[in-house]
From TrEMBL:
MF terms (GO), sorted A to Z: hydroxymethylpyrimidine kinase activity; phosphomethylpyrimidine kinase activity
Alphabetically ordered keywords of this record: Kinase, Transferase
Originating organism: Vibrio japonicus
Signal peptide: none
CDD domains per the UniProt record, alphabetical: HMPP_kinase
The gene coding this protein: thiD
InterPro entries, sorted: HMP/HMP-P_kinase_dom (IPR004399), PM/HMP-P_kinase-1 (IPR013749), Ribokinase-like (IPR029056)
Lineage: Bacteria, Pseudomonadati, Pseudomonadota, Gammaproteobacteria, Vibrionales
Domain of life the protein comes from: Bacteria
Functional pathway: Cofactor biosynthesis; thiamine diphosphate biosynthesis
Protein's name in the database: hydroxymethylpyrimidine kinase
Amino acid sequence: MTTSTDSHPFPINTPIVLTIAGSDSGGGAGIQADIKAMSATGSYACSVITAITSQNTLGVSAIFPIPRDHVESQLDAVFTDLNIVAVKVGMLADSTIIQVVASKIKQYQPKFLVVDPVMVATSGDLLLEHSAISTLKTELIPLADIITPNLPEGAALTGSSTPETEQEMSAMVDELRALGAKAVLLKGGHLEKNENSNDLLILNETTTLISAKRFPTKNTHGTGCTLSSAIASYLAQGNDLIDAVKLAKTYITQAITHADELEVGNGHGPVHHFFAWNQAEKSDAQQ
């Protein structure tokens, strides 16, 4: 890949990654977090907005799903012009939107599809209608190269109770495999008593532990969006699935570790997507 220059912040032939998700007016999650994460990890981000949320670090006060025909026209606009290598799917709000997204993925067949089955915000607000979960499972998940549920989402997808231990996480593996995605990253971030944040990368034949030191902070808004976007970005850049997941895990861990350097809002603040740039600027200033 050609090295970037000051006049060209992205390398020539930078892989293009599409995020299909909802807008977070607070800027910490959703489309806004996706674009930040894709940009920070070296890809060019484009977007299709599925819903507009009235949201801040304290919670979600309103959700306006984008009409189906406009979601469809956005998808056609980007796919017919841009060379999209990878797609990340986040908040889809309802069954109608899920169906149109699945249809367009089948039509345009991007090389990689990462599905983050967004159902509940960090604040606890519901972001996906319960009636839409079955549509997600039948229409979209089987198309995915990888899905990235957290523990409550994994429980919702399998109809089981939310795991409270790593043993209970492991007990979900077969049911998650049966959903039909090529791989599943079951995120263990909700096991807050654990010293490490342990995820399970579930492939057809193997399960791999992806672990990182846990950093204590309340500023974790947008972690799932950020991680899945980074995976899509690294896949688009030519990494294999396991390496893309490991690179994305390292990136989100650092973004969480530096989250308290930001002062945004009064609730669950965002992670620090551009920690590396800030560190570089500080280093330059000291020289």
